[in-house]
Amino acid sequence: MPQPAARRSAPRHARPSRRGRNAAFAATGALAISGAGLLGLPSVAGAQAATAPTVTQDRLAPAAMVAGKASTASLSLHSSACFTAKTVGVGVRDASGTNLDFPGNASNVQICPSGVNFTSAARTLPAGTYSQFGFWQDVAGAWHNLPAQQLVVSATGTTAPTPAPTATPKPTATPTPSATATPSTSAPSSPAPSSPVAGKSLTWSDEFNGSISWGQRWVGDKSTAYKYGNHNPDDNKLDWLNKNNVSVANGVATFTATPGGPALENGKQSWNTGFLTTEGSSEGFQVKTGDYAETRVKLPAGTGAWPALWTWKNGNGEVDSFEYHPDNPNLLELTNHVNPGNGKYYTDASAIAKDQWVTIGTYYGANSVDWYVNGVKVFSDGKGVGANWSAYLILNLSLSAGQYHPAPQGTAPITMAADYVRVYR
2 and 20 in contact (C-beta within 8 Å)? Predict the structure, then answer.
Protein backbone atom coordinates (compact mmCIF):
# COMPACT_ATOMS: atom_id res chain seq x y z
CA MET A 1 0.00 0.00 0.00
CA PRO A 2 2.94 2.47 0.19
CA GLN A 3 2.99 4.95 -2.66
CA PRO A 4 5.55 7.35 -4.13
CA ALA A 5 5.85 10.45 -1.98
CA ALA A 6 5.07 12.74 -4.88
CA ARG A 7 1.58 11.25 -5.19
CA ARG A 8 0.55 10.76 -1.57
CA SER A 9 -2.09 13.47 -1.78
CA ALA A 10 -3.83 11.89 -4.79
CA PRO A 11 -6.96 9.74 -4.36
CA ARG A 12 -6.23 6.04 -3.88
CA HIS A 13 -7.68 5.01 -7.23
CA ALA A 14 -5.54 7.56 -9.06
CA ARG A 15 -2.20 6.37 -7.74
CA PRO A 16 -0.20 3.14 -7.44
CA SER A 17 -0.69 2.81 -3.69
CA ARG A 18 1.08 0.14 -1.63
CA ARG A 19 3.87 -0.13 -4.14
CA GLY A 20 6.37 2.71 -3.75
CA ARG A 21 8.63 0.90 -1.33
CA ASN A 22 8.32 -2.37 -3.20
CA ALA A 23 9.67 -0.70 -6.30
CA ALA A 24 12.70 0.43 -4.33
CA PHE A 25 13.14 -3.07 -2.94
CA ALA A 26 12.89 -4.64 -6.37
CA ALA A 27 15.50 -2.22 -7.72
CA THR A 28 18.02 -2.45 -4.90
CA GLY A 29 17.37 -5.70 -3.08
CA ALA A 30 17.78 -3.72 0.14
CA LEU A 31 15.55 -4.11 3.17
CA ALA A 32 15.49 -3.36 6.88
CA ILE A 33 16.00 -6.38 9.11
CA SER A 34 14.53 -6.57 12.58
CA GLY A 35 14.16 -9.32 15.15
CA ALA A 36 11.31 -9.67 17.59
CA GLY A 37 11.96 -8.48 21.13
CA LEU A 38 15.56 -7.33 20.81
CA LEU A 39 17.23 -7.15 24.19
CA GLY A 40 20.54 -5.38 24.85
CA LEU A 41 22.40 -7.41 27.45
CA PRO A 42 24.65 -6.17 30.26
CA SER A 43 28.29 -7.11 30.09
CA VAL A 44 29.30 -10.43 31.60
CA ALA A 45 32.54 -12.00 32.69
CA GLY A 46 35.16 -13.75 30.57
CA ALA A 47 34.79 -14.36 26.86
CA GLN A 48 31.14 -13.41 26.89
CA ALA A 49 32.01 -9.91 28.04
CA ALA A 50 33.96 -9.39 24.82
CA THR A 51 31.12 -10.44 22.55
CA ALA A 52 28.26 -8.90 24.59
CA PRO A 53 25.69 -10.79 22.49
CA THR A 54 22.23 -9.47 21.82
CA VAL A 55 19.66 -12.23 22.32
CA THR A 56 16.35 -12.18 20.43
CA GLN A 57 13.30 -14.15 21.54
CA ASP A 58 11.75 -15.25 18.25
CA ARG A 59 8.89 -17.35 19.52
CA LEU A 60 7.32 -18.32 22.85
CA ALA A 61 4.48 -20.78 23.42
CA PRO A 62 1.93 -21.65 24.63
CA ALA A 63 -0.21 -18.52 24.68
CA ALA A 64 -3.03 -20.47 26.32
CA MET A 65 -3.50 -23.57 28.52
CA VAL A 66 -6.37 -25.42 30.23
CA ALA A 67 -6.30 -25.74 34.02
CA GLY A 68 -5.31 -29.23 35.14
CA LYS A 69 -3.96 -30.20 31.73
CA ALA A 70 -0.18 -30.55 31.61
CA SER A 71 1.58 -28.57 28.87
CA THR A 72 5.16 -27.99 27.84
CA ALA A 73 6.58 -24.61 26.89
CA SER A 74 8.63 -23.93 23.76
CA LEU A 75 11.11 -21.13 23.16
CA SER A 76 12.96 -20.10 19.98
CA LEU A 77 15.77 -17.57 20.16
CA HIS A 78 18.92 -16.45 18.44
CA SER A 79 21.86 -14.18 19.22
CA SER A 80 24.03 -11.66 17.45
CA ALA A 81 27.09 -13.90 17.99
CA CYS A 82 27.61 -17.50 19.06
CA PHE A 83 28.06 -18.12 22.78
CA THR A 84 27.15 -20.76 25.36
CA ALA A 85 24.44 -20.02 27.88
CA LYS A 86 24.71 -21.81 31.20
CA THR A 87 20.92 -22.24 31.39
CA VAL A 88 17.91 -21.64 29.12
CA GLY A 89 14.29 -21.92 30.24
CA VAL A 90 10.78 -20.46 30.33
CA GLY A 91 9.61 -18.44 33.31
CA VAL A 92 6.05 -17.91 34.55
CA ARG A 93 4.86 -15.41 37.17
CA ASP A 94 1.40 -15.06 38.64
CA ALA A 95 -0.24 -11.73 39.49
CA SER A 96 1.50 -11.61 42.87
CA GLY A 97 4.93 -12.27 41.35
CA THR A 98 5.23 -15.88 42.52
CA ASN A 99 7.57 -18.02 40.37
CA LEU A 100 5.78 -20.88 38.63
CA ASP A 101 8.37 -21.63 35.95
CA PHE A 102 8.11 -24.54 33.55
CA PRO A 103 10.46 -27.30 34.78
CA GLY A 104 13.30 -28.90 32.89
CA ASN A 105 15.71 -26.10 31.99
CA ALA A 106 18.38 -26.85 29.37
CA SER A 107 22.05 -26.54 30.34
CA ASN A 108 25.11 -25.45 28.34
CA VAL A 109 23.10 -24.30 25.32
CA GLN A 110 25.00 -22.85 22.37
CA ILE A 111 23.04 -19.86 21.02
CA CYS A 112 24.03 -18.58 17.57
CA PRO A 113 22.62 -16.24 14.91
CA SER A 114 21.11 -19.30 13.19
CA GLY A 115 18.91 -19.84 16.23
CA VAL A 116 18.01 -22.58 18.66
CA ASN A 117 14.77 -24.09 20.00
CA PHE A 118 14.03 -25.27 23.54
CA THR A 119 11.14 -27.34 24.91
CA SER A 120 10.56 -27.61 28.64
CA ALA A 121 9.14 -30.45 30.69
CA ALA A 122 5.37 -30.35 31.27
CA ARG A 123 3.46 -28.74 34.11
CA THR A 124 -0.06 -27.70 35.06
CA LEU A 125 -1.27 -24.28 36.21
CA PRO A 126 -4.45 -23.09 37.95
CA ALA A 127 -6.90 -21.01 35.92
CA GLY A 128 -5.81 -17.40 35.65
CA THR A 129 -3.66 -14.94 33.72
CA TYR A 130 0.12 -15.13 34.00
CA SER A 131 3.24 -13.40 32.69
CA GLN A 132 5.42 -15.76 30.63
CA PHE A 133 8.92 -15.14 29.28
CA GLY A 134 12.08 -16.86 28.12
CA PHE A 135 15.25 -16.50 30.14
CA TRP A 136 18.91 -17.46 30.03
CA GLN A 137 21.84 -17.47 32.43
CA ASP A 138 25.37 -16.46 31.45
CA VAL A 139 28.53 -18.29 32.55
CA ALA A 140 29.09 -15.76 35.32
CA GLY A 141 25.74 -16.73 36.85
CA ALA A 142 23.71 -13.61 35.89
CA TRP A 143 20.11 -14.16 34.76
CA HIS A 144 18.62 -12.39 31.73
CA ASN A 145 14.85 -12.25 31.17
CA LEU A 146 13.52 -11.93 27.63
CA PRO A 147 10.31 -10.03 26.66
CA ALA A 148 7.20 -11.21 28.51
CA GLN A 149 3.82 -12.11 27.06
CA GLN A 150 0.48 -13.06 28.54
CA LEU A 151 -0.38 -16.70 29.26
CA VAL A 152 -4.10 -17.35 29.78
CA VAL A 153 -5.09 -20.56 31.61
CA SER A 154 -8.78 -21.25 31.13
CA ALA A 155 -10.97 -23.20 33.55
CA THR A 156 -11.10 -27.00 33.36
CA GLY A 157 -13.43 -28.18 30.64
CA THR A 158 -12.90 -25.20 28.35
CA THR A 159 -12.01 -26.24 24.85
CA ALA A 160 -8.29 -25.94 24.26
CA PRO A 161 -7.08 -23.75 21.39
CA THR A 162 -6.44 -25.45 18.07
CA PRO A 163 -2.75 -26.22 17.44
CA ALA A 164 -1.17 -24.25 14.63
CA PRO A 165 0.70 -25.69 11.64
CA THR A 166 4.37 -26.53 11.27
CA ALA A 167 7.05 -23.85 11.61
CA THR A 168 10.57 -23.65 10.16
CA PRO A 169 13.12 -25.93 11.93
CA LYS A 170 16.08 -24.43 13.77
CA PRO A 171 19.23 -26.00 15.25
CA THR A 172 18.93 -27.84 18.56
CA ALA A 173 20.21 -26.91 22.02
CA THR A 174 21.89 -29.28 24.47
CA PRO A 175 19.22 -30.34 27.02
CA THR A 176 19.22 -31.70 30.53
CA PRO A 177 17.66 -35.18 30.92
CA SER A 178 14.31 -33.63 31.90
CA ALA A 179 14.11 -31.22 28.96
CA THR A 180 14.27 -31.50 25.20
CA ALA A 181 15.65 -29.07 22.67
CA THR A 182 14.65 -30.10 19.16
CA PRO A 183 14.01 -28.51 15.80
CA SER A 184 10.73 -26.59 15.84
CA THR A 185 7.82 -28.73 14.58
CA SER A 186 4.79 -26.54 15.32
CA ALA A 187 3.80 -22.92 15.68
CA PRO A 188 2.23 -21.62 18.92
CA SER A 189 -1.33 -22.66 19.62
CA SER A 190 -4.07 -20.38 18.38
CA PRO A 191 -4.31 -17.96 21.30
CA ALA A 192 -7.32 -17.36 23.46
CA PRO A 193 -8.55 -13.78 23.13
CA SER A 194 -6.01 -11.52 24.81
CA SER A 195 -4.20 -8.36 23.81
CA PRO A 196 -0.44 -7.78 24.17
CA VAL A 197 -1.35 -4.14 24.79
CA ALA A 198 -2.14 -3.73 28.49
CA GLY A 199 -5.60 -2.66 29.58
CA LYS A 200 -7.46 -3.72 26.42
CA SER A 201 -10.58 -5.90 26.30
CA LEU A 202 -12.04 -7.75 23.33
CA THR A 203 -14.71 -5.50 21.78
CA TRP A 204 -15.34 -7.00 18.32
CA SER A 205 -14.30 -10.21 16.58
CA ASP A 206 -15.08 -12.82 13.98
CA GLU A 207 -13.75 -16.29 14.83
CA PHE A 208 -15.08 -17.72 11.55
CA ASN A 209 -16.93 -20.47 13.40
CA GLY A 210 -20.00 -20.07 11.18
CA SER A 211 -21.05 -18.70 7.83
CA ILE A 212 -19.88 -15.23 6.82
CA SER A 213 -22.40 -12.65 8.00
CA TRP A 214 -22.73 -10.91 4.64
CA GLY A 215 -24.34 -7.50 4.83
CA GLN A 216 -24.51 -7.39 8.61
CA ARG A 217 -20.83 -7.75 9.54
CA TRP A 218 -18.94 -7.96 6.27
CA VAL A 219 -19.19 -6.80 2.66
CA GLY A 220 -17.28 -8.80 0.06
CA ASP A 221 -17.96 -7.30 -3.34
CA LYS A 222 -17.30 -3.56 -3.12
CA SER A 223 -15.13 -0.95 -1.41
CA THR A 224 -14.46 2.77 -1.85
CA ALA A 225 -10.78 1.81 -1.78
CA TYR A 226 -11.31 0.41 -5.31
CA LYS A 227 -11.71 2.87 -8.18
CA TYR A 228 -14.57 0.96 -9.79
CA GLY A 229 -16.01 -0.38 -6.56
CA ASN A 230 -15.16 -4.01 -7.25
CA HIS A 231 -11.89 -3.68 -9.16
CA ASN A 232 -8.96 -1.29 -9.36
CA PRO A 233 -6.43 -1.90 -12.16
CA ASP A 234 -4.78 1.47 -11.48
CA ASP A 235 -3.41 0.01 -8.22
CA ASN A 236 -1.42 -2.73 -10.03
CA LYS A 237 -4.13 -5.27 -9.12
CA LEU A 238 -5.84 -8.04 -11.01
CA ASP A 239 -8.61 -8.21 -8.39
CA TRP A 240 -12.30 -8.53 -9.18
CA LEU A 241 -14.05 -8.69 -5.80
CA ASN A 242 -16.39 -11.64 -5.38
CA LYS A 243 -17.88 -12.67 -2.04
CA ASN A 244 -18.18 -16.26 -3.31
CA ASN A 245 -14.40 -16.42 -3.09
CA VAL A 246 -14.50 -16.42 0.73
CA SER A 247 -15.63 -19.64 2.40
CA VAL A 248 -15.66 -20.92 5.99
CA ALA A 249 -15.03 -24.43 7.32
CA ASN A 250 -13.70 -25.80 10.62
CA GLY A 251 -13.28 -22.35 12.14
CA VAL A 252 -11.15 -21.00 9.29
CA ALA A 253 -12.02 -18.54 6.52
CA THR A 254 -10.38 -19.37 3.19
CA PHE A 255 -9.79 -16.61 0.65
CA THR A 256 -9.45 -17.95 -2.89
CA ALA A 257 -8.31 -16.21 -6.06
CA THR A 258 -9.33 -17.79 -9.36
CA PRO A 259 -8.66 -16.67 -12.94
CA GLY A 260 -11.40 -15.92 -15.42
CA GLY A 261 -12.87 -12.67 -14.15
CA PRO A 262 -13.96 -9.89 -16.53
CA ALA A 263 -11.41 -8.00 -18.61
CA LEU A 264 -9.98 -4.93 -16.88
CA GLU A 265 -9.81 -1.44 -18.36
CA ASN A 266 -6.11 -1.96 -19.15
CA GLY A 267 -6.91 -5.10 -21.12
CA LYS A 268 -5.60 -7.56 -18.55
CA GLN A 269 -7.67 -10.51 -17.41
CA SER A 270 -8.91 -10.13 -13.85
CA TRP A 271 -8.99 -12.77 -11.12
CA ASN A 272 -11.99 -13.25 -8.84
CA THR A 273 -10.68 -12.62 -5.32
CA GLY A 274 -11.80 -12.98 -1.73
CA PHE A 275 -12.36 -9.74 0.18
CA LEU A 276 -13.84 -8.76 3.56
CA THR A 277 -14.54 -5.20 4.69
CA THR A 278 -16.73 -3.72 7.40
CA GLU A 279 -17.41 -0.71 5.16
CA GLY A 280 -21.02 -0.71 3.96
CA SER A 281 -22.18 -3.36 6.43
CA SER A 282 -25.16 -2.72 8.69
CA GLU A 283 -22.86 -2.88 11.74
CA GLY A 284 -20.46 -0.47 10.08
CA PHE A 285 -17.75 -1.35 12.61
CA GLN A 286 -14.68 0.90 12.64
CA VAL A 287 -11.40 0.71 14.50
CA LYS A 288 -10.34 3.96 16.14
CA THR A 289 -7.43 5.57 17.94
CA GLY A 290 -6.34 3.43 20.88
CA ASP A 291 -7.62 0.12 19.46
CA TYR A 292 -5.52 -3.00 18.91
CA ALA A 293 -6.51 -5.18 15.92
CA GLU A 294 -5.15 -8.67 15.32
CA THR A 295 -5.50 -11.49 12.82
CA ARG A 296 -4.01 -14.95 12.54
CA VAL A 297 -3.40 -15.94 8.93
CA LYS A 298 -1.80 -18.71 6.93
CA LEU A 299 0.31 -16.88 4.39
CA PRO A 300 -0.18 -17.89 0.75
CA ALA A 301 2.45 -19.55 -1.43
CA GLY A 302 1.10 -18.85 -4.91
CA THR A 303 3.02 -16.48 -7.14
CA GLY A 304 1.20 -13.17 -7.42
CA ALA A 305 -0.56 -13.42 -4.05
CA TRP A 306 -0.86 -10.11 -2.17
CA PRO A 307 -2.73 -10.55 1.14
CA ALA A 308 -3.20 -7.74 3.64
CA LEU A 309 -5.00 -6.58 6.75
CA TRP A 310 -5.56 -2.82 6.41
CA THR A 311 -7.93 0.06 7.07
CA TRP A 312 -9.70 2.56 4.84
CA LYS A 313 -12.15 5.45 5.11
CA ASN A 314 -13.09 8.46 2.99
CA GLY A 315 -10.14 8.19 0.63
CA ASN A 316 -7.59 7.91 3.43
CA GLY A 317 -7.31 6.34 6.86
CA GLU A 318 -5.00 3.62 5.59
CA VAL A 319 -2.85 1.68 8.05
CA ASP A 320 -1.40 -1.60 6.81
CA SER A 321 -1.16 -4.17 9.58
CA PHE A 322 0.69 -6.24 7.02
CA GLU A 323 1.21 -6.85 3.34
CA TYR A 324 2.91 -10.00 2.06
CA HIS A 325 4.34 -11.25 -1.23
CA PRO A 326 5.60 -14.85 -1.63
CA ASP A 327 8.57 -13.68 -3.73
CA ASN A 328 9.85 -12.11 -0.45
CA PRO A 329 8.84 -15.14 1.64
CA ASN A 330 10.13 -14.03 5.06
CA LEU A 331 9.13 -10.35 4.86
CA LEU A 332 6.09 -8.35 6.00
CA GLU A 333 5.46 -4.75 4.95
CA LEU A 334 4.24 -2.55 7.83
CA THR A 335 3.01 0.92 6.86
CA ASN A 336 1.12 3.88 8.31
CA HIS A 337 -0.28 6.06 5.51
CA VAL A 338 -2.24 8.36 7.84
CA ASN A 339 0.97 10.01 9.05
CA PRO A 340 3.56 8.43 6.75
CA GLY A 341 7.30 8.41 7.11
CA ASN A 342 8.56 5.35 8.98
CA GLY A 343 7.34 2.22 7.21
CA LYS A 344 9.10 -1.06 7.86
CA TYR A 345 10.21 -4.15 6.01
CA TYR A 346 10.13 -6.67 8.85
CA THR A 347 11.87 -10.01 8.32
CA ASP A 348 11.87 -13.13 10.49
CA ALA A 349 12.43 -16.45 8.76
CA SER A 350 11.32 -18.39 11.83
CA ALA A 351 7.90 -16.70 11.99
CA ILE A 352 7.12 -15.54 8.44
CA ALA A 353 7.03 -18.02 5.57
CA LYS A 354 4.85 -19.31 2.77
CA ASP A 355 2.13 -21.72 3.93
CA GLN A 356 2.86 -20.87 7.59
CA TRP A 357 0.49 -19.46 10.22
CA VAL A 358 1.44 -16.18 11.87
CA THR A 359 -0.36 -13.79 14.24
CA ILE A 360 -0.11 -10.11 13.28
CA GLY A 361 -1.49 -7.18 15.26
CA THR A 362 -1.50 -3.39 15.17
CA TYR A 363 -2.00 -0.82 17.93
CA TYR A 364 -3.38 2.40 16.48
CA GLY A 365 -1.83 4.89 18.88
CA ALA A 366 -2.39 8.62 18.62
CA ASN A 367 1.36 9.28 18.61
CA SER A 368 2.71 5.93 17.38
CA VAL A 369 1.41 2.92 15.51
CA ASP A 370 2.90 -0.28 16.93
CA TRP A 371 3.08 -3.63 15.11
CA TYR A 372 3.16 -7.07 16.77
CA VAL A 373 4.13 -10.45 15.34
CA ASN A 374 3.17 -13.51 17.37
CA GLY A 375 2.45 -11.28 20.37
CA VAL A 376 5.82 -9.48 20.35
CA LYS A 377 6.15 -5.80 19.41
CA VAL A 378 8.42 -5.57 16.37
CA PHE A 379 8.11 -1.95 15.24
CA SER A 380 6.86 1.47 16.42
CA ASP A 381 6.67 4.25 13.86
CA GLY A 382 6.57 7.23 16.25
CA LYS A 383 3.96 8.87 14.00
CA GLY A 384 0.57 7.58 15.11
CA VAL A 385 -2.86 8.24 13.66
CA GLY A 386 -3.90 11.26 15.71
CA ALA A 387 -6.51 11.56 18.42
CA ASN A 388 -9.68 11.33 16.33
CA TRP A 389 -8.86 8.74 13.66
CA SER A 390 -11.24 5.92 12.72
CA ALA A 391 -11.51 3.60 9.72
CA TYR A 392 -13.07 0.41 8.40
CA LEU A 393 -11.26 -2.93 8.51
CA ILE A 394 -10.26 -4.84 5.37
CA LEU A 395 -8.84 -8.37 5.18
CA ASN A 396 -8.28 -9.60 1.65
CA LEU A 397 -6.27 -11.50 -0.91
CA SER A 398 -5.21 -9.32 -3.83
CA LEU A 399 -3.34 -10.39 -6.96
CA SER A 400 -0.33 -8.43 -8.21
CA ALA A 401 -0.43 -7.35 -11.85
CA GLY A 402 3.34 -7.68 -12.31
CA GLN A 403 4.69 -4.14 -12.01
CA TYR A 404 6.50 -4.56 -8.69
CA HIS A 405 5.95 -8.24 -7.90
CA PRO A 406 5.34 -11.18 -10.23
CA ALA A 407 1.83 -11.70 -11.52
CA PRO A 408 0.22 -15.14 -11.13
CA GLN A 409 1.71 -17.87 -13.27
CA GLY A 410 -0.73 -20.37 -14.75
CA THR A 411 -4.36 -20.79 -13.77
CA ALA A 412 -4.18 -22.70 -10.48
CA PRO A 413 -6.26 -21.12 -7.66
CA ILE A 414 -4.34 -19.20 -4.98
CA THR A 415 -5.48 -19.34 -1.36
CA MET A 416 -4.96 -17.67 2.00
CA ALA A 417 -6.57 -18.73 5.31
CA ALA A 418 -7.59 -16.69 8.37
CA ASP A 419 -8.31 -18.07 11.84
CA TYR A 420 -9.88 -14.88 13.23
CA VAL A 421 -10.01 -11.09 13.24
CA ARG A 422 -10.15 -9.46 16.73
CA VAL A 423 -10.26 -5.90 17.96
CA TYR A 424 -9.49 -4.83 21.53
CA ARG A 425 -10.44 -1.46 23.03
Answer: yes
